[in-house]
Design goal:
It is built from 11 helices and 8 strands. With 322 residues, the chain is of the alpha/beta class. The radius of gyration is 24 Å and the shape is globular.
């Protein structure tokens, strides 16, 4: 009399377990991976590759000097639950790297894009990043060919971590690389409109060490010393003499790095001082993207150096649509 009932209960129990197992599996398969990044350009590149398949969090706030950024306790929590942590590397985010190594999950990889992109013999050293200090200039991304390599490295890492969304990552990256290639070509075109004698850069922070050689420009000087302080009097005198010798028409600063010294140098030499270039702060919408940042930089730079500021106006600065 009870056997059919027992059999029915066993069957229902089995079906319930099977159903729960299937539900859990379905939940796991639809769960988005968590990606933590640092500076805004890296975050934006990663978002364009990841699309809607992952949650991407950048922990370096806007208008913050990435070299001196110190993560706060809430960042430790964010890093601790990440499935992958993506940094620029090359010494840019040392405090964040140290914290990530302490709090991350055992199996969470830390991907350093700059270290994966260039060999050591390709690293650039300069006044802001002297060789004797051991840290090369980490600003690879203004060179769009290197930014494209960043996107490819991110794509491959995400596919390895989340193979179920390989097709989406591949499609996003293909679209994004096409947009970056258009930007790269436009930058070459902008530089061609600048008189050859004016294709020289004097910046406060040396963010264009990898940019300049690709596009046929020359970095004459970077004002900020390696300890991120203001330069001393002798260094200021040297830079003023160099600007006069090279007949540079403009010097460039950044709102992230306000500097009275740059204004002084501009007054002493009689050249224009423009403090609107950006290497790690994205512009406001609708140009709120890495491509938008670089397009703004080129319009400002080209116009100040005697070229056609409209050379970049045709570029689509939108992010990849998902």
């Amino acid at each position: 009399m009870y056997r059919p009932l027992r059999s029915s209960i066993k069957l229902l129990s089995f079906l319930l377990v099977l159903s729960l197992s299937s539900l859990c599996h379905s939940s796991d398969s639809t769960k988005k991976i968590s990606i933590v990044t640092t500076v805004a350009p890296i975050t934006n590149i990663v978002r364009n590759v990841a699309g809607g398949y992952a949650n991407v969090t950048g922990i370096v706030p806007d208008r913050t000097d990435s070299h001196t950024f110190e993560p706060v306790p809430t960042d430790a929590r964010i890093l601790s639950i990440a499935d992958i942590i993506i940094l620029n590397g090359l010494g840019l985010e040392t405090p964040t790297m140290k914290l990530a190594q302490k709090v991350k999950k055992n199996r969470t990889p830390i991907l350093q894009l700059g270290n994966r992109t260039l060999r050591k013999e390709q690293w650039q050293y300069d006044f802001s990043f002297p060789r004797e200090h051991g840290h090369p200039n980490p600003h690879l991304w203004p060179n769009i060919a290197l930014a494209m390599r960043y996107a490819e490295i991110v794509r491959d890492a995400l596919i390895a971590l989340d193979p179920g969304n390989k097709t989406g990552y591949m499609a996003n990256t293909e679209t994004y690389l096409g947009k970056l290639k258009e930007l790269d070509n436009a930058i070459f075109g902008c530089v061609k409109t600048i008189p050859e004698k004016n294709r020289k850069l004097v910046t406060y922070h040396d963010s264009f060490a990898y940019f300049a050689p690709r596009y046929g420009m020359k970095v004459i000087a970077a004002v900020q010393p390696s300890d991120f302080s203001e330069p001393g009097p002798q260094e200021v005198i040297r830079i003023i003499k160099q600007i006069r010798k090279e007949k540079v028409p403009a010097v460039f600063g950044s709102e992230v790095f306000p500097s009275k010294v740059m204004k002084q140098i501009a007054r002493e030499t009689g050249v224009r001082f423009i403090d609107q270039l950006s290497d790690d702060e994205l512009p406001a919408p609708p140009d709120n993207s890495f491509i938008g940042m670089m397009a703004n930089n080129m319009a400002i730079m080209t116009g100040a150096l005697g070229g056609d500021a409209g050379c970049i106006a045709h570029i689509d600065t939108s992010n990849v649509q998902h």
